[in-house]
Amino acid sequence: MTEADVDALLRGNGLWQGPVTVTRLKGGYLNQILLVTTGAERMILKQFLPAATGTLFPNLPDDEARALQVLGVLDVSPRLIGYWPEARLMAYAYVEGGPWETGVQDVARLLTLKEAADPAGFRRVPLDPAAILAEGDALFAWCQASPGAARPDPVAVAAPKRLSLIHTDLGANNLIGSGEGLRIIDWQCPAMGDLAEDIYSFLSPGFHILNEHPVLTPDEIAAFWAAMKRPDMQARHASLRPHFAWRMAGYCLWRSETRPEPEVRERYHRAWIAELQHMRQQDAG
Question: How many CB atoms lie within 10 A of CB 17?
Answer without folding.
Answer: 12
